[in-house]
Amino acid sequence: MSPLKLTLLPAMLIALNAAAATPPIATPSVDERVDAIMRPMTLEQKIDLIGGVDDFYIRGMKASDGPG
Question: What Å distances lie between residue 42 and 30, 33, 45, 61, 66, CA to CA?
């Protein structure tokens, strides 16, 4: 092996060991994400969401945490 490869090998092994020791980040399931979005919506908002307007577009909704 070349000297460069021998120099990089310990660094690569350390990085791989650190990656293996780090626990994976739990991500919510699709159902949990959908529930988190749908739960705060009113029935009227849910109906507007599935009702659509102008060829497959959805109606806009004002968000309390955004501009608008």
Answer: 21, 17, 5, 11, 18
State yes or no: pLDDT of 64 exceeds 60: yes
Query: Which 8-state DSSP code applies to residue 24?
Result: P
What pTM was estimated for this model as a whole? 0.44
Question: How high is the pLDDT of residue 15?
Answer: 76
Task: Let me know if 53 is exposed, middle or buried by CB neighbors in 10 A (0-12, 13-18, 19+).
Answer: exposed
What does 40-61 look like in DSSP terms, one character per residue? TS-HHHHHHHHH-BTTTBPPP-
Q: How far is CA 68 from the centre of its chain?
A: 24
